[in-house]
Specification:
246 residues; alpha+beta; 7-stranded mixed sheet; 7 strands; globular; disordered N terminus
Length: 246
């Protein structure tokens, strides 16, 4: 899409939901996600537990598995190349954030991949309400945020975080969950990121050291509690129990 001189292109948000009945669309999604993720690892290696060298070796099934994983959601920032709508081929992907729903027996650890247990088949029912399962025993980790240098200083990082928190709020309603803990990890020296996370409601919880390869690093664990809309939550429960149809 052509833009007037001095005019900055509009940036949109796309949610990569995990159901892909169209194989061509799935291929577009995982290849564009792979390229953006590898670019983030190449440009900002200090921000991630993984490395470009590790993930460049991933076979397609790994990327497909991430896109289709029902325990996770990828949210990407997009710039349209043409005036076509909702076509991934006509978008430039310039930002990324991932939300992963975690089990109660997991802990946020900056030295380990957040995908380690979320890719386990035993977790594939995480967004389903199951009898006898306490939805409050699960929590969310916001991970892998990246904003391309060409679009920084435009509030895009905050927009991605807010989109992830809004989606978490929606998942809480699906799960009949009135509140949920959300965790994000950041290097203690990344003051810009820490300031951004604080501006979106996260607070410091603890600082700890870990090894990344042969190097010692320090990470800050930040959390916030997301509360559902109590009135709407209770009305939805009442309607479900009484089969009320508007």
């Amino acid at each position: 899409m052509e833009h007037k001189e001095g005019q900055r292109p509009a940036i949109g948000i796309r949610f990569l939901h995990n159901e892909w009945p169209n194989k061509d669309e799935l291929t577009k999604a995982w290849t564009k996600l792979r390229d953006l993720r590898l670019l983030s690892l190449k440009l900002s290696p200090e921000a991630y537990a993984s490395t470009y060298e590790q993930e460049a070796e991933f076979i397609p099934d790994v990327w497909i598995g991430r896109v289709k994983n029902p325990a996770a959601l990828h949210i990407v920032a997009t710039i349209p190349k043409t005036d076509k709508t909702d076509d991934m081929d006509d978008e430039e992907w310039v930002g990324l954030i991932v939300v992963i729903r975690k089990r109660a027996d997991e802990d946020a650890d900056a030295s380990k991949s957040p995908w380690s247990k979320s890719s386990d088949p035993a977790n594939m029912n995480q967004f389903t309400r199951l009898p006898g399962i306490d939805p409050g025993s699960r929590w969310f980790q916001v991970n892998g945020m990246f904003v391309h240098p060409s679009v920084r200083q435009r509030g895009l990082g905050k927009k991605l975080i807010e989109a992830s928190l809004a989606w978490i709020h929606d998942r809480m309603r699906v799960l009949d969950q009135p509140s949920s803990k959300v965790v994000i990890l950041v290097d203690v020296g990344n003051e810009a990121a820490i300031g951004l996370y604080r501006s979106t409601g996260f607070t410091n919880v603890e600082e700890y050291s870990f090894m990344r390869g042969d190097e010692k690093h320090a990470a800050l664990k930040m959390t916030q509690e997301i509360w559902g809309d109590r009135d709407r939550y209770e009305m939805d429960i009442l309607r479900a129990r009484n089969h009320v149809i508007d």
